[in-house]
Amino acid sequence: MMLAVDIGNTNIVIGLYQKQELTTNWRISTNRASTADEYGILFRQLLSYAGIDRHLVDAAVISSVVPPLGPVMREAMSRFFGVEALLVGPGIRTGMSIRYEDPREVGADRIVNAVAAYEKYGGPAIVVDFGTATTFDAISKSGEYLGGAIAPGIGISTEALFERAAKLPRVEIARPRAAIGKNTIASMQSGILFGFAGQVDELVRRIGRELGERPQVIATGGLADFIARETSTIEHVDPWLTLEGLRIIYERNQEGAAGLEGARL
Question: In total, how many domains does the chain have?
Answer without folding.
Answer: 2
